[in-house]
Amino acid sequence: MLLEANLTPFADRCKELSATGYVKSLCLPTPSPRKQIATAAADPSRTKRKDWRSLAVTAVEECGVGNLKLEEFITAPTIPPWTALGNTVFEADTINGITKQHSLEEQKVDTLKTIKSINADIEIYSDGSAGDNVNGGGGTLIKVKSSDTEFEVKCPAGKITSSLRAEMFAARAALQKVEELQREEVITADTLALFTDSKSTVQHLGKCRKHNDLLLDDIQKSLVNITSNGVPTTTIQWIPAHCGTEGNDRADVLAKEATELEQEDVPVNFATVKSVIKRKCKESWLLRSKPKIHFAKELKVGDESGLTKIERTLMSRLRTGGHTPHLRWYQHFITRTKKEVKSPICHRCNAAVEDTIHLFTNCPNLTELRTRTFNTDEDPVRLMWTEPKRIVKFLHEAGVFDTGAI
Q1: Which H or E run includes 334?
Q2: Do 253 and 277 belong together in one domain?
Q3: Taking the CB of the first residue and of the last residue of the chain, which one, N or C, has fewer CB atoms within 10 A?
């Protein structure tokens, strides 16, 4: 049941949370009371039971992240959230809104048209590489039109990193190189454009203003400095990857070469370590459970983006047996010892107990809605994992969200 509900046992979850909390404490700025507690020596009088630090350290080492150099949180962003990042424009779409579903030729044509429409004096192409989240690198190509010169920049992104973080390393290296060239008076320009094939990078840079991320803070400072140093307009533009754009292809090669650089001194941020701990704990549980319950299948939850917190919560409860007051059987269960006992019978058909199976497959009053929502060969119960948005739509039309109060 835990496997099919995509859950881990309580002991594994405790190990994951203790390791995550310990690492987060180590990432806090110095001095920090919580960091001091986490790094303090164990109480020698405790001989029978291990303290939480020992348990957390053991869990961290088991996950393979015990010897990593950690990046500290910043206390507050250098650039206040209510101020502009220079005169920077963030564009997550090309001029004609091309997507990866279009042909490579269509992507290339629209990309070149987008680059030409911006017509920047300085063009930057940046890319990140993080194969299997190990040994990341960032590569950047800077083209200065006025002097017809090019600059190549490569930087390591850490022994453990994510694709987004590798892309951010590349963007930071590029912008800091432009700052350096400005200080040396090597370049002057009115417009600058940074082209990246990571849409999440463009969105992250444009929307994330309240944060504690040092890497993001460095990029935001560079954007402001570049503007104050004489570049009135900066554009951060997304372009499709691997469609034959020369600048993007060269940046991709540089990023792959950057993965061979020394990674030891590059700090790893908390979000990356947290994801590694979560994945390792999950793998440990699956390694133990699969041989014992070979027929159980782990079902991955589909896209839940756009769903509200209430909708996500209800979906989670339905997947784990329908323990929610939105169903009559559970209302009856939690009121069975009270004076006013709720009936478990479905209020739509008054014929059977309203549980998950009855709601999705048996209730005669919902037959037409089920026919309209699901195909005949589809199992609505399985769709709770694979297509949660369709299930939420069904639940709204069935009026389930209107019956949660007791």
Answers
A1: helix 328-335
A2: no
A3: N
